[in-house]
């Protein structure tokens, strides 16, 4: 009877074949994290990400559940056709990143992902000590409520001044808007400014609020906190102060909102269009396209 442990003949591989197998193994290892991603369907309830790692969020039915990343978590999140609209609920946040969290937000190819928050809150909330990186190739639409940035900080009260956290956009189609007054498209909400905003690629459109919000940078009355650094090295970027009614914006397209400091602004690449606001009063000067507001 043949032995079950009989050694079979081995096949010798040429050096090129060994190299191919080696690189295939490396490729498999590099995607192993995303292959083990935790999947959520937002129709099943609010999504709370409280563990480090890879996560995929889908949505099979329209519903107003929200997304929260807990404090101190480092998460790689893919949005695949998600639509969160809590714009009719005051202080509701569509996507909330908590303190000291680090998020890489990937937009699945061929999908549009929409985040709409209630009054006072950012569409995609990035507090001062959090870090957000957005990558494509899909689409993101983030809409802050009255007083909140599209992407960035929210409004708390008249005596609290805040700074948005670190925001980087590397790719995708990103549209960020404050739907109301006071907030920037990307950056500070009311009484808020920005710390670090970096755009390396993608197609970015950022529209500030009717009264006082920059396209990219500070919100209304963020003077108590210094403006940080805005760096644009690539992509297609359109920054509009004051929404569709730019004559009442009082803000720079890129930099300071009304009564806010402009910080440091560096543009070394990309195609940049900057549309500032103007005073509502007659015979008053236009705000800066890039720099400080009025």
Spatially, the strands of the biggest sheet line up as 1-3-5-8-11-15-19-22-25
Overall mean confidence score, pLDDT? 83
Q: Which spans of ≥5 residues are poorly predicted at pLDDT below 50?
A: 1-13, 17-33, 280-284
Through-space gap between termini: 93 Å
Number of strands: 27
Following the backbone from N to C, one meets helices and strands in this order, namely HEEEEEEEEEEEEEEEEEEEEEEEEEEE
Q: What's the Cα radius of gyration? A: 22 Å
Total helical segments: 1
Structural class estimated from helices and strands: mainly beta
Biggest beta-sheet profile: 9 strands, parallel
What's the oligomerization state? single chain
Beta-strand content: 35-45%
Overall geometry: globular
Helix-residue proportion: under 10%
Report on this model:
The longest helix is centred in the first third of the chain and has 21 residues, at 15-35. This protein has 294 residues and is mainly beta. The protein has 1 helix and 27 strands. It is globular and about 45 Å long. Strands 1-3-5-8-11-15-19-22-25 form a 9-stranded parallel sheet, covered by helices on one side. Strands 2-4-7-10-13-17-21-24-27 form a 9-stranded parallel sheet, with no helix packed on it. It has a 7-stranded parallel sheet with strand order 6-9-12-16-20-23-26, with no helix packed on it. The N and C termini lie far apart (93 Å).
